[in-house]
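User: Show me a protein chain along with its predicted structure.
Assistant: Here is one chain, sequence first, then structure tokens.
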Amino acid sequence: MNDKILLIQVFVVLFLCINLLLITTFFTKEVFYTTMRYVLFAVTLLSDCLLLFLANILLILSYYRYTIKMWLCLIIYIVLSLYISVTPFTLTAMTLERYVAICLPLRHAELCSPCSTLHSILIIHILSSLPCIVFLSIFFASASYSSYTRGRVCTVEIFIIHRWQGHLKSAINQFYFLIMCITILFSYVKIMKVAKAASGEDKKSTWRGLRTVGLHALQLLLCLIQLWCPFIEAAVLQINLMLFLNVRYFNYISFILVPKCLSPLIYGLRDEMFFLIYTFLCISPNTTDIMGV
């Protein structure tokens, strides 16, 4: 196996182990799965794990030029397309939760209740599915029935029958990201105003929330750059094949793997309660007995 592919496997296994341990931590305390920000955090972890796993499978299949049936590739593509959007939408929802907690503390219990959390997750998945539905509707209308039984190397490009399909999907995604960026910027400005006016412990907590929103903005930026990668790679391919392969490898590491490890750092390691239980789980297999859960 190529050294670069082997290095990616090491990163993927490492990130999956960390994320799965954090998901285990999530289920150890009732406060985690009844609090909106922790539930949304768990959604990003599950989404990132699924994306890492499926993207890695496609990477290996593509590297060895292994063909699979079109219908199976279609199922993988639908799941990937959905959860690529779920993560940034969830980050935006987490930012709004911090905005409500800091700027509207008296309404936080009402607006961020378990019922509201479930509604938020449902809305996130509905919005995330819209670009996929539009894209696949065009594909189903254009593709022949026999194409579903053919064996192909599974890539996104095989679903693009008309060139404008890619532009349409990109336009929808970038519209979504514009709305998300405006939402995060609005939350950041509002929290900053509260931070400047706060004092004592409130000031410390508010500035911590501000840093969290800033880190979410960084994650969102990396997700947005990921959308531009196919256009950059297509342009580089016209210049030099080896340069194209190096750029694609760099993009995979920087804009697919790295964003997936930021969520554990932002909540899993920065949140004191979560980090404490996470550390116990790493040290002792009988953590639940120790903590009386």
